[in-house]
Amino acid sequence: MQTVKLAAIPAAFSSSCFMFRPVTKTLGLISRRNHSQKPPFRLLARAFSAPALQTIDTTDNKGGVVVKPQWKAAIDFKWIRDNKEAVSANIRNRNSNANLELVLELYEKMLNVQKEVDRLREERNAVANKMKGKLEPSERQKLIEEGKNLKEGLVTLEEDLVKLTDELQQEAQCIPNMTHPDVPVGGEDCSIIRKTVGNPSVFNFPVKDHFQLGKALDIFDFDAAAEVLLLFIVSGSKFYYLKNEAVMLEMGLINWTLSEVIKRGFTPLTTPEIVRSSVVEKCGFQPRGANTQVYSIEGADQCLIGTAEIPVGGIHMDSILSESLLPLKYAAFSHCFRTEAGAAGTATRGLYRVHQFSKLEMFVFCQPEESDSYHEELIRIEEDLYSSLGLHFKTVDMATEDLGAPAYRKFDVEAWMPGLGRYGEISSASNCTDYQSRRLGIRYRPSQLSSTNAKKGKGPTRFVHTLNATACAIPRMIICLLENYQQEDGSVIIPEPLRPFMGGLERISPKCS
Amino acid sequence: MQTVKLAAIPAAFSSSCFMFRPVTKTLGLISRRNHSQKPPFRLLARAFSAPALQTIDTTDNKGGVAVKPQWKAAIDFKWIRDNKEAVSANIRNRNSNANLELVLELYEKMLNVQKEVDRLREERNAVANKMKGKLEPSERQKLIEEGKNLKEGLVTLEEDLVKLTDELQQEAQCIPNMTHPDVPVGGEDCSIIRKTVGNPSVFNFPVKDHFQLGKALDIFDFDAAAEVSGSKFYYLKNEAVMLEMGLINWTLSEVIKRGFTPLTTPEIVRSSVVEKCGFQPRGANTQVYSIEGADQCLIGTAEIPVGGIHMDSILSESLLPLKYAAFSHCFRTEAGAAGTATRGLYRVHQFSKLEMFVFCQPEESDSYHEELIRIEEDLYSSLGLHFKLLLFLAEL
Q1: Does the annotation list B2 as a binding residue?
Q2: I need a labelling partner for B139 at 20 to 30 A (CA). Which of A70, A114, B106, B116 fits?
Q3: Catalytic residue from among A401, A425, A437, A443
Q4: Is the pLDDT of residue B330 over 90?
Q5: Within A95-204, where are the H helices?
């Protein structure tokens, strides 16, 4: 297995489909962006834009390189063909570099070759049948010849079919998910504020940012981390130790959030943080793309997860769930690892953008008709959680250019961070409809209600819909709590809901040193 | 930077010093073993036995390969020389493949070269001083010649000195730590039981293992994890998650009460820090996961990032002792553990752990060792566990 090194590749080439790139303005926690600048090197870009490849070809290749995909997404080509205007408009709206014309062309070709293959097989069977009967030697000889020709023709055609199928996969996997009709079309400035809760806190003393506050409270250590790790000189180390009350804060936040979501019917989970690369790809991320957010393990086809969404999505990989199990609602706790490659320019000191952090993630598997309503439920849960903690925030319906390929619709929560003087993303809730489930192979069997059909539960399967939403991303929450609850003397008040989960601690005070 | 793949290397070559190998019988959480079988290919082994190398030479090289170490340990060579019998006996007892004779030899050589270098430098300074005064042209010319010769000689000697110093480092880093006099010599079979707490519980029904129990209680998932990640990975579900949270929360509060500073740590660290703690990220059958395209590794224990917290520092005495309780996820390849496979949670690639770490003055480490083991005994007794405390020479 070739391993592609974590090398820096010029921005022009960084146009991978399902890439996991940091958001600049809204400083998104997770964003999968369609390529937002149309690159001059479109053809080269395509070589990078295909996921599920065993090797990535880096040469200038007009038609793109077809390599055998490691796995196949169950893409509905017929639907794409029948809805090609809508699909095309969607690709444009999302600024994706998917090539729909090529996909449709390959699909037609594939169908034709398939037809031809079927026809030849029929003829070969017919010949085989004829040979069973009593024949003149000359007739038998003719049939043997015919059979041989048919067989050779078939082998060639079958090879073509495989090649076409692989190329079709490669191109079609680039097509982003469709978009909810209410989603605004355009870039970040077009995103719509759905809801605002609270107001920016008013301070009658100079406000400090979390980095200053944390230093004075002796609850962080970034410098030691920089020694222990290689540092990015401009932006600080992006690794950190939490100390003293910051540790209690992390534990308190996790414990409280976990109990809140368990009350709401979510099954708690902890997950592996090392997963197979293919699972990362199936969820819509690109471990080997340029400027990838994904750390890879040396000498193995494995990666570190950037979010628990990945191992949770994978939990039901290649399965058929019974309808009665749905919806499946998980609250998964994990550490998350992100390279933040390409984020050097947008550096902020402190916890805002870090390589490793703890997160509690909600994940839902449901029936297709219900995903819109579960999306509303997830964002409502997030809003409840952040209101309970007394945060001021706005919920934003993200515009098409800010949606990652898997997302049908995405709501971000941006909370006010007075020390930084701006809103920062603290969570993201996406409805991925069947994008991930078609790649992960997750289906369910609708129960048959027809009284005339005795075969209950044997109907055709359908793909589930998947949704994911951040319940609590620890570093961003710590920033919010420290900056919003700071007092003039540098101490920080702990919001009431967290106190029982922190041994009753009411305030973090500066240490006398 | 060359990256050495996580490849399997035959056991004969797996004789690295501070390698992080799984314990077989007591199935210890962490054990650093001296090479336990004297390999037939001792010389080849030496090439693998030196940590802190930029590249690992894999060719048959009689004298061992000296490559530039990335970092130097501040080893007390004089003490080693002055106590060579004790050091030699210790090396034997621990079944280490460190070559003390070679270390002492290199040390002497190095001292001699150093002396020579110092001498030449003195002469060169003397020559330089002479040249400041008023001289006959022929005298001046002679001095210039002399100065030139001295300089050339120095350059050569200084190169030799560097090579010797590097080789000395490479060999000396293999020498294991000295051993407390009470530790029984020999392997695990010679272990002493220091303490026993409680008794095995008596059940009046057939006892199940944790794997069966967990399955029936729907609190684990190993099958899905095998698909998503591979074997020895798992999901915890439902009450097992509460159990993990409860254990961490409770243990953390218990150790905080006892004066430990709580900490969470990076789980990705520089390879050199891993080595400085005595682990070997690039050894054969290494326990350490490496990150592709970077000189970084995943930690197998919070000991590593906590040890590193005060790297290259001078602490004021008043700060000591520093007592940390560090919570982290830990990652281990468990390479070479395939034969001892047990199903379930016994040996896994990723797990959560709360680790105590103490920095203290030398005279106090024995007593802090006693304090730490007492804390552990208290914790496990409080949970009603039956256990025994063993003292044995943990082979690296």
Answers
A1: no
A2: B116
A3: A425
A4: yes
A5: 100-130, 137-172
In whole angstroms, give the CA distance from residue A142 to residue A139: 5
- Contact between A315 and B234 using a beta-carbon 8 Å cutoff: no
Interchain contact A227–B (C-beta under 8 A): yes
A263: Cβ contacts below 8 Å, ≥ 6 apart: none
Pairwise CB contact (< 8 Å): B227 & A242: no
- Token pair listed for A28: 């998104």
B355 is in an annotated binding site: yes
- B373/A348: higher pLDDT: B373
Is residue B67 within 8 Å of B166, Cβ to Cβ? yes
What phi, psi does B13 have (nearest 5°)? -95, 0
3-state secondary structure of A21: coil
pTM of this prediction?
0.83
Could you tell me the domains of chain B?
Answer: 2-48+208-391 (3.30.930.10), 100-172 (1.10.287.40)
Tokens coding B396: 């690296």
Give tens-digit pLDDT for B32-90: 443 333 333 333 222 223 334 333 333 333 445 556 778 999 999 999 999 999 999 99
What confidence tens digit (pLDDT) does each residue in B336-375 have? 776 556 789 999 999 999 999 999 999 999 999 999 999 9
* Residue A479, both tokens: 């920033």
User: How many angstroms from the chain centroid is the CA of residue B67?
Assistant: 19
The structure tokens listed for B375 are 């804390």
Which of B240, B245, B261 has its CB closest to that of A255?
B245
- ipTM greater than 0.95, yes or no? no
3-state DSSP assignment of residue A178: coil
The answer to whether residue A236 neighbours chain B at the CB level (below 8 Å) is: no
Helices A245-263 & A371-388 angle (0-180, nearest 10): 140
- Is B188 annotated to bind a ligand? Reply is no
